DNA sequence: GGAAATTTGTTCGTATGTATA
DNA sequence: TTATACATACGAACAAATTTC
């Protein structure tokens, strides 16, 4: 699915890119929730800090917003 | 803030000295929490292992104790 | 209302690899 | 070779907000 564990980019960046692509193609529409940290851990086989780093990157890019106790949501386009 | 990045002492030692001075002058009183590792990273512009080395030095000197999941605290005088 | 599960927030513990002096 | 420093990654504990039953 595009995550190349042997690639030069860190895993959290590759995961963020996968999520960003899903946002771009409408898999995750605006205002919808993206998978939880635990969900990303399971899907990509990484630890929670790594999943969190990916989400942090998406937040920095303005693609998602996170709400404590609820989840992370696709920012409104 | 007294940290001389061009000085002969390693950064982690200088950071530890700064914290030790704050403990001595009462800025961080006994049983109070000192800044987290992330806080030291931001304040002194270093990476986490370096901040941890500084704290390790303070623990070795008996000035602070660290508790997993909570933080590092000034030892009781 | 209350208890439990889910989810994110924060923090320290540990390990590996890379780069530099 | 050793010491220092950074980046990455996994593990674990504690905390707080939210949702669900």
Features:
homodimer; 77 residues; mainly alpha; Arc Repressor Mutant, subunit A; two-stranded antiparallel sheet; globular; DNA-binding
Structural description of this entry:
Two copies of one chain form a homodimer. With 77 residues, chain A is mainly α. Chain A has one domain: Winged helix-like DNA-binding domain superfamily/Winged helix DNA-binding domain (Arc Repressor Mutant, subunit A). In chain A, 45% of the residues lie in helices and 10% in strands. In chain A, strands 1-2 form a two-stranded antiparallel sheet. In chain A, strand 1 and strand 2 form a beta hairpin. In chain A, helix 1 crosses helix 3 and helix 2 crosses helix 3. The termini of chain A are far apart. The mean pLDDT of chain A is 91. Chain A binds a DNA duplex (21 and 21 nucleotides) through helix 3. Chains A, B: GO terms for molecular function: DNA binding; DNA-binding transcription factor activity. Chains A, B: Pfam families: GntR. Chains A, B: Keywords: DNA-binding, Transcription, Transcription regulation.
Topology:
The structure is a homodimer of 77-residue chains.
Chain A: H1 11-24, H2 37-44, H3 48-60, E1 64-67, E2 71-74
Antiparallel strand pairs in A: 1-2
The structure holds a DNA duplex (21 and 21 nucleotides).
């Amino acid at each position: 699915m595009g995550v190349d564990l042997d690639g030069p980019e860190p895993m959290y960046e590759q995961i963020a890119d996968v999520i960003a692509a899903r946002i771009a193609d409408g898999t995750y529409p605006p205002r919808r929730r993206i998978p939880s940290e635990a969900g990303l851990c399971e899907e990509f086989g990484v630890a929670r800090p790594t999943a969190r780093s990916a989400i942090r990157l998406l937040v920095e890019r303005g693609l998602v917003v996170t709400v404590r106790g609820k989840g992370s949501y696709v920012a409104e386009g």
